[in-house]
């Protein structure tokens, strides 16, 4: 039996995983990162438009701060988010972006003086302040009150991944590339690592660690049309679910991005609209102001995607041989802007659509984009039910996105959660009571169980084809568990997915070649993916309200009285359905009690505690009208939750720090 | 996507180990094949070999599928694996031209498969793995392992003045033009095309390639990196570094990100010559 020991086993080589490993290593703990692919090829790379951090450098971001970012994020989440976690996040985001600046990320910078920008379809001249010259620039994104999204042209994730990946190499942290965790090793409610398959040789190894951290990204490939990379199959979430102990939160909360290219589903950044791009229908009419007069194209993604589909249903979609779509118009931004700030967009249009966005309209239609749900953790990033298991980034339900995340908040979450959870992991490993002594027999049992499953797949003469099952699952998810959901269609989806899950136990392989064996990979993954698909579909069926990205046409209102809660899924053995529990969110503690988001539907059912809490919040706001920090602390104290080295205010041009404070650094 | 289209495996031609892949039957296919019609047959010949399988010998295998609208090599290879041959190995991640996983030799030229439209290069298409890198199987090569070793060798990370900065304070300023210039070189996706197209790499297995020289150029430009030309000379001032380049510049021609490799190599060579003479 191959066994590898380390302090921290990080599963997933994207931004969140890399950053957690750096944090642990800096605190003196050894880390090994497992990655399906070379880490710089991870899906973090696909974050194009930018990372939200309330620096307030640009003139249109003036006045931005943690409070504004907090409110935007909670409204975006449709009050599904954990507000403590959102506070931790917004206070750390400026530190994270500044850390990355010090690590070499070539962030786009502010140039003082006049510049022409496009706002609401009009060219206007804005003047950047002299004192902002050379600081990080921000662009506009959906669902935000201020320009807050820091960016590197439209290759932000790429540049961040380069810098953080380089830090991992500089820190001599090994990355075991082309490896895949098949099962978590756990006993007595404690996680001890994972059984890992080498995707080149096919060999199994037990990795044993004090702390195991999942950072395996989202599960977009549950759907037929998704912006996600082909590796985003949710396997990290699935192995957590398969412990029967760890829980998955809010899996029914799935985001659809408004502007992937049609029909391929390749993402075009929200920066297209943030920088002034418009959505047009078959008649060339700009329709978003008709539906969303407040935020127009820049309402939150769930709202814009629904409005686009609604408009297509009214017969206003542009027709093509592949079906109907909407047009994205960025021509008004001009050639220089497109070729500098939206360079990837130009490339994608050129290579995949054969068109030039400087002159042509771009066909777009909403497609699956982000998994708000994931491995449920507490604010430290640790599973509340499986000790020693941590999760961060898209794989986690930490939970700062609730039922809809804002553009620019996910790539920000990867590094912010990487920093925060990385510190908590180091704290965890510091404690002697968390030392481990695990019998080799336990390791052997876990390895043998996985070995037997793989061998079973190879030698069974099953009749089911893994690729066909996967394709059918993806079709069901896209057709029946998409943007608009109904009880009837969800019931059909759950029924058929259960049948597929049963069929997946009778998969037969055509190829038994030694080594990687891609057919075997598809087979064991589809068995896991079907469980996740059922968490999504059954969770959506059970939640009889509409919240954020989860929209039930038969229950179109948000219902705080009944559903202000987080769905927690567990999976028992050979069951064909998850078991749900619901974790209530406490209105009485909320800094921002539920209300209207500022865009989208205005009808919702209030929670009985909301009016009382709102009155208490209003009184405190009056009492502390002059000091935003004292006000915040009175409303919902959170700073004690942050790791000590990440606490502290953030300096801004408009909020200078008088003298050098004691060095608090990461 | 034409998942219902007919398809078949039509022939298997053994080749000698180490021999280059046979050219497509219509060589110069990029021009000749422009505009393959939807529904027309594509013949995709793949160089195959599984080093993990003692029974495997290198050979060319040809698959026949139907051209569909907007079909890329990603879609074509997925269709082959899902319907015709589940054992075929290749690497795709983003399938959007940004991650660098899928570089392979397409009709004799290293490029990103995911953003190559079959209608532009068919109907006869030949695919081979990138040369130079360790072969994992069929079209899959281990670029990641090589790139990590390169970064370790060149210490390809920003060597900052101090280990820790005060994250509560304003970030250090940088001229917008400089940030753009650094980004221009930071756009490398480590796909390996430059080494696959490199003459020197055929002769020097430890050559750092355009990817390595570009990394040095990138950090040299960055004021946050405190290293000097004397430091960089230690890393690339030899025949495995910038002096190994024969200026054939295949790298520049095949770089999918159109990095300015020609000027950067010339520029760094001049700086390193100057450093070496001082």
Low-confidence stretches of chain B: 1-5, 17-33
Low-confidence stretches of chain A: none
What Rg of chain B do the Cα atoms give?
Answer: 21 Å
General form of chain B: elongated
Q: What pattern of helices and strands is seen along the backbone of chain B? A: EHEEHEEHEEEHHHHHHHH
Counting DSSP E segments of at least 2 residues, the number of strands of chain B comes to: 8
Give a short synopsis of this structure:
Chain A has 666 residues and is of the alpha/beta class. At the A-B interface, helix 3, helix 4, helix 10 and helix 15 of A face helix 2, helix 4 and helix 5 of B.
Structural commentary:
- The complex is a heterodimer of chains A (666) and B (278).
- Helix content of chain A is 35%, strand content 18%.
- Chain A is built from 18 helices and 25 strands.
- In chain A, helix 3 packs across helix 11 and helix 9 packs across helix 10.
- Chain A is globular.
- With 278 residues, chain B is of the alpha+beta class.
- Helix content of chain B is 34%, strand content 15%.
- Chain B has eleven helices and eight strands.
- In chain B, the strands form two sheets. Chain B has a six-stranded mixed β-sheet.
- In chain B, strand 4 and strand 5 form a beta hairpin.
- The longest helix of chain B is centred in the C-terminal third of the chain and has 17 residues.
- Chains A and B meet through helix 3, helix 4, helix 10 and helix 15 of A and helix 2, helix 4 and helix 5 of B.
Task: Give the tags.
heterodimer, A: 666 residues, alpha/beta, 7-stranded mixed beta sheet, 5-stranded mixed beta sheet, 25 strands, globular, B: 278 residues, alpha+beta, 6-stranded mixed beta sheet, 11 helices, 8 strands, elongated, disordered N terminus
Write the layout of secondary structure elements.
The complex is a heterodimer of chains A (666) and B (278).
Chain A: E1 2-11, H1 15-26, E2 31-35, E3 51-52, H2 66-76, H3 83-102, E4 113-119, E5 122-128, E6 138-139, E7 149-150, H4 156-170, E8 175-177, E9 179-187, E10 190-198, E11 204-214, H5 235-241, E12 248-249, E13 254-257, H6 271-274, E14 278-280, H7 288-291, H8 301-316, E15 318-320, E16 323-329, H9 335-341, H10 343-353, E17 362-364, E18 367-371, E19 374-376, E20 389-391, E21 396-397, H11 409-430, H12 440-459, H13 466-480, H14 487-503, H15 518-542, E22 558-559, H16 560-563, E23 565-570, E24 579-584, E25 604-605, H17 610-623, H18 628-635
Chain B: E1 8-14, H1 29-32, E2 41-48, E3 59-66, H2 73-84, E4 103-106, E5 109-112, H3 118-121, E6 124-128, E7 135-137, E8 140-141, H4 143-153, H5 176-186, H6 193-196, H7 199-203, H8 209-221, H9 229-236, H10 250-254, H11 261-277
Parallel strand pairs in B: 2-6
Antiparallel strand pairs in B: 1-3, 2-3, 4-5, 4-6, 7-8
């Amino acid at each position: 039996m191959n066994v590898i020991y380390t302090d921290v086993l990080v599963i997933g080589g994207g931004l969140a995983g890399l950053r957690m490993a750096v944090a642990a290593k800096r605190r003196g703990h050894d880390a090994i990162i497992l990655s399906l692919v070379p880490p710089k090829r991870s899906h973090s790379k696909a974050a194009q438009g930018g990372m939200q951090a309330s620096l307030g450098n640009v003139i249109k971001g003036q006045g931005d701060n943690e409070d504004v970012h907090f409110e935007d994020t909670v409204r975006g989440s449709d009050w599904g988010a954990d507000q403590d976690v959102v506070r931790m996040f917004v206070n750390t985001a400026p530190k994270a972006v500044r850390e990355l600046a010090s690590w070499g990320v070539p962030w786009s910078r502010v140039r003082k003086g006049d510049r022409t920008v496009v706002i609401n379809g009009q060219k206007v001249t804005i003047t950047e302040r002299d004192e902002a010259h050379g600081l990080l620039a921000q662009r506009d994104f959906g669902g935000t009150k201020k320009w807050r999204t820091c960016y590197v042209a439209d290759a932000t994730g790429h540049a961040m991944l380069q810098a953080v990946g380089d830090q991992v190499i500089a820190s001599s942290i090994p990355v075991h590339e082309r490896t895949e965790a098949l099962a978590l090793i756990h006993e007595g409610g404690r996680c001890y690592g994972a059984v890992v398959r080498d995707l080149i040789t096919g060999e199994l190894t037990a990795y044993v660690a004090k702390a195991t951290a999942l950072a395996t990204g989202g599960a977009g490939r549950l759907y037929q049309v998704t912006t996600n990379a082909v590796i985003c199959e949710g396997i990290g979430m699935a192995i957590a679910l398969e412990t029967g102990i760890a829980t998955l939160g809010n899996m029914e909360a799935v985001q659809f991005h408004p502007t992937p290219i049609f029909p391929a589903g390749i993402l075009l950044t929200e920066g297209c609209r943030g920088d002034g791009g418009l959505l047009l229908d078959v008649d060339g009419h700009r329709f978003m102001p008709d539906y969303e007069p407040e935020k127009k194209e820049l309402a939150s993604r769930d709202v814009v995607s629904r409005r686009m589909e609604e408009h297509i249903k009214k017969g206003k979609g542009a027709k093509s041989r592949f079906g109907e779509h909407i047009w994205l118009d960025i021509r008004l931004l001009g050639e220089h802007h497109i070729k500098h700030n939206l360079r990837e967009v130009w490339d994608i249009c050129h290579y995949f659509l054969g068109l030039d966005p400087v002159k042509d309209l771009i066909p777009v239609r909403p497609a699956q984009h982000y998994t708000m749900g994931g491995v449920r953790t507490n604010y430290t990033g640790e599973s509340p039910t499986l000790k020693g298991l941590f999760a961060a980034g898209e794989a986690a339900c930490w939970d700062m996105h609730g039922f809809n995340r804002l553009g620019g908040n996910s790539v920000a979450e990867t590094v912010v959660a990487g920093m925060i959870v990385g510190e908590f992991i180091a704290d965890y490993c510091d404690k002697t009571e968390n030392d481990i002594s695990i019998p080799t027999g336990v390791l052997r049992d876990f390895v043998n169980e996985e070995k037997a499953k793989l061998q079973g797949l190879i030698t069974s003469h099953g009749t089911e084809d893994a690729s066909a099952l996967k394709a059918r699952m993806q079709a069901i998810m896209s057709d029946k568990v998409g943007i608009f959901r109904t009880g009837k269609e969800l019931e059909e989806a759950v029924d058929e997915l259960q049948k597929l899950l049963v069929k997946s136990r009778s998969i037969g392989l055509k190829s038994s070649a030694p080594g990687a064996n891609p057919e075997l990979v598809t087979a064991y993954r589809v068995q896991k993916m079907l469980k996740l698909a059922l968490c999504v579909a059954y969770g959506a069926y059970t939640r009889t309200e509409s919240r954020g990205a989860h929209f039930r046409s038969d229950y179109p209102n948000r219902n705080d009285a009944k559903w202000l809660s987080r769905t927690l899924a567990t999976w028992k053995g050979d069951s064909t359905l998850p078991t749900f529990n619901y974790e209530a969110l406490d209105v009485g503690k909320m800094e921002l009690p539920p209300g209207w988001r500022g865009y989208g539907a205005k009808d919702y059912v209030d929670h009985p505690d909301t009016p009382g809490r709102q009155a208490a919040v209003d009184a405190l706001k009056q009492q502390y009208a002059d000091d935003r920090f004292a006000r915040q602390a009175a409303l919902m104290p959170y700073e004690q939750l942050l790791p000590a080295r990440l606490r502290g205010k953030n300096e801004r041009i408009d909020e200078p720090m008088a003298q050098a404070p004691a060095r608090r650094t990461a | 996507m034409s998942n219902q289209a007919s398809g078949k495996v039509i022939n298997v031609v053994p080749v000698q180990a180490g021999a280059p892949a046979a050219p497509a039957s219509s060589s110069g296919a990029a021009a000749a094949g422009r505009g393959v019609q939807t529904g027309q047959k594509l013949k995709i010949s793949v160089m195959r070999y599984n080093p993990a399988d003692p029974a495997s010998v290198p050979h060319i295998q040809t698959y026949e599928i139907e051209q569909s609208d907007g079909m890329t090599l990603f879609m074509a290879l997925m269709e082959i694996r899902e319907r015709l041959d589940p054992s075929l190995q290749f690497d795709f991640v983003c399938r959007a031209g940004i991650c660098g996983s899928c570089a392979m030799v397409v009709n004799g030229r290293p490029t990103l498969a995911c953003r190559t439209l079959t209608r532009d290069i068919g109907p006869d298409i030949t695919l081979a793995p990138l040369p130079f890198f360790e072969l994992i199987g069929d079209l899959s090569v281990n670029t990641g392992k090589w790139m990590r070793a390169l970064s370790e060798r060149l210490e390809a990370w920003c060597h900052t003045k101090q280990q820790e900065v005060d994250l509560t304070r304003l970030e250090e300023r940088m001229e917008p033009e400089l940030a753009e210039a650094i980004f221009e070189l930071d756009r490398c996706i480590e796909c390996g095309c430059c080494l696959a197209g490199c003459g020197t790499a055929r002769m020097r297995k430890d050559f750092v390639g355009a990817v390595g020289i570009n990394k040095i150029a990138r950090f040299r430009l960055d004021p946050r990196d405190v290293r000097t030309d004397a430091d960089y000379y230690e890393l690339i001032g030899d025949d495995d570094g910038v002096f190994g380049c024969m200026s054939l510049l295949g790298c520049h021609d095949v770089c999918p990100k159109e990095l300015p490799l020609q000027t950067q190599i010339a520029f760094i060579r001049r700086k390193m010559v100057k450093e070496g003479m001082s």
